[in-house]
Amino acid sequence: MRTVYFILRKEFKQIFRNKALLPLIFVAPIIQLLILPLAADYEVKNINLAVVDHDKSSYTQKLISKITSSGYFRLSGYFNSYDEAFHQIEKDEADLILELPSNFEKKLIRENHEQVFIAVNAINGTKAGLGGSYLVQVLADFNSQIRLDWIQPPRFREQAQIEITSSNWFNPLMNFRYFMVPGILAILVTMIGSYMTALNIVKEKEIGTIEQINVTPIRKHHFILGKLIPFWVLGMFVFSIGLFGVSFLIYGIVPQGNLFLLYGFLAIYLVAVLGFGLLISTYCDTQQQAMSVAFFFVMIFMLMSGLFTSVDSMPMWAKVISQLSPVTYFIEVMRMIVLKGSDFNDIKFHFVIIGGFAILLMSWAILNYRKTT
Amino acid sequence: MHRSKIVSLNYSSKMSGEIVIQANQLTKQFGDFIAANSITFEVYKGEIFGFLGANGAGKTTAMRMLCGLSSPSSGQATVAGFDVRTQPEEIKKNIGYMSQKFSLYEDLTVAENIQFFGGIYGLSNKHLKAKSEELINQLGLQSAKGQLVGSLPLGWKQKLSFSIAILHQPKVVFLDEPTGGVDPVTRRQFWDLIYQAAESGITVFVTTHYMDEAEYCNRISIMVDGRIEALDSPSGLKKRFNVSSMDEVFYQLARKAKRSDN
Fold it and tell me: What is the nearest CA distance from B119 to chain A, expressed in angstroms?
């Protein structure tokens, strides 16, 4: 154990002496946590709408003003023909075209039935999909208003009308930051843990000091403990800054669940992440290689772990990849504990899996670390 | 001149000693390339053994096998009585090693490097403190104690490296081109340190490209293309090749070499 103490002392000295790395460890995550959630907002606003109004009646005017007053749409202009409006889409100045046929008003009143045409610019999938469905909602609403105005309600309703009201649990205002900040924090801790560990060890390989270590009688597990403990501590520290300093103070996110439970999970999760970093370092000889490999995996972790998109809606093969990433479980646990206040019973399955990851990655790394080649 | 006198004195008094390194047909192969080809030799306790050869001759490979850093493809070797194949960690307790590449921590101070490596070798706090003071005084590094090692001139770095390699009083110290790129005065001082170590009973196994340094060794081996082509005392070799300097001995052997670094 005395050996571990000597390594720890050396590592901490080196970390705190590295004037380029230190701000990267402590300041970069805070800045990222401040910037990223602003961009990762799913609510679509400022959808540009091109209107082709062949009817030019009071009804179409009403409809259009109803659409623009919803706050989601911005009128990019009125056009005389569909082709003209489509030109707007080609120039990327419109996202949606709403085409209202002539005799819209007449037909709607007389025949109680009319069709409108919506064309969606699907280049930006999210904006197009959500914009289209917003527009359909506004139209439906408009439709039922007209029906109320014109149709004498029968004594008994001809059609069963189901009115839907929904409430958003655990995030009543559907504030996307509540959802994104814990997830992004999980990714940041993962990146710091894996990059720092991998680079630290590979750097020793690169400058040759690892050879001087390998020629000493140092025990393998002592060396690894001495190398990993500092980054485990740093990971805990950075996570705390993110959770209390940014998430709580700036975004006002109050963790609903038990903090000990959260930290307990993080403690095990960090072992898995550091094991992953160590594993990379055993396969790489230069920092460049290590960085590229780590980046490759972190990229997959980021996009496949349900940070931005729901894992449930992925195809089967993607779900499998997602489930093979430890980050998936941490993001889930973060959101469950922080937003929902889940207790141990809810996440015991996650504990088992992440424990498995920790054991697997760490043993693989330790087995693959060789003092003698 | 006075140096060769010391050498011969040491040599005769320690020749009778036990074998510290024994290599028997030691071979290391990387794919088709045989870096060290069936090398056989012995090194005695207290000896300064020069391990010569052109670039790429296989010196470092052989040395790494003896240090337990690389395991041999075939053949046997024992160092300090332990088998390189089965007991590399036991060997590591009994040797010091100074690699070709400077490998102390440049971002730690002189004192911190001494403490770290001393600590790793399991020196007690008391012992560590005494040793590091002794070492700093011996090298005249009092004023540089708190300086980062990276800021020291190369000569000092090399001397410090060597002193740290023998901090734990190993039975053998392996030095891989310890004086490469160092000025002549510092080289002299470095060899003084080597002599002091040999005096205290540490066997020195050293590679070098400087033929004047080869003359300081008790015995030398010369490797050519992975094989040991000659092994004797400097005077014995000169006699055998009928030349007046080690330079010529080396030249005669090494020009047969077919491979080089690249």
Answer: 6
